[in-house]
Amino acid sequence: MKRFLRTALMSVRFLFMILFPLAVAMEQERCMPEDHTNVAIPFRLLYRDVCPLINNILSEATYEFQNHCAMKCLQYPLCAGYNFKKKHQKKTPNCQLTNTLDHNFHDCNTGDKGWIFYHPVAPRK
After folding, report:
1. What count of other Cβ atoms lies within 10 Å of the Cβ of residue 105?
2. Rounded distance between C-alpha atoms, residue 39 and residue 102, angstroms
3. pLDDT over threshold 90, residue 22
4. Residue 15: its pLDDT value, please?
5. Distance in angstroms (rounded) separating the CA atoms of residues 85 and 96
6. What is the CATH number of domain 43-120?
7. Percentage of the chain surpassing pLDDT 90?
8. What's the CA angle centered on 61, arms 55 and 67, to 5 degrees?
């Protein structure tokens, strides 16, 4: 009887050692780099393929992801919107925060375009 229990216990241990890592691996949530875009941000696209801002810029920075630019805008009480460029040269700003929605985006070279302007869905205080 002891031998049977010992054999059964060893079988259970063996199965546990084999199956437990598999179960843990199945439970782990695998985050992909593009998952950051699934965060709900209270901004809406207003203009696509526009020029960089020239006037009324609160701040300029370089961010890898658009939602980082949006979060920065939320930190500024006077931020009325932001301009973001996905494809940019390193160390050049690709996020521009502004305090107004009144901009003339039509005065630039074609090569300078590619920015996307977002504004808040709800009014800012």
Report:
1. 16
2. 27
3. no
4. 57
5. 9
6. 3.50.4
7. 43
8. 105
At 37, list the tokens.
């875009």
Q: Global pTM?
A: 0.64
CA distance 10 to 6: 6
Give the per-residue pLDDT at 72. 95
Tokens 């925060």 found at: 97
As given in the structure block, the two tokens for residue 5 are: 């229990």
Residue 83 has pLDDT above 70, yes or no: yes
Query: Domain segments of the chain: what residues?
Result: 43-120
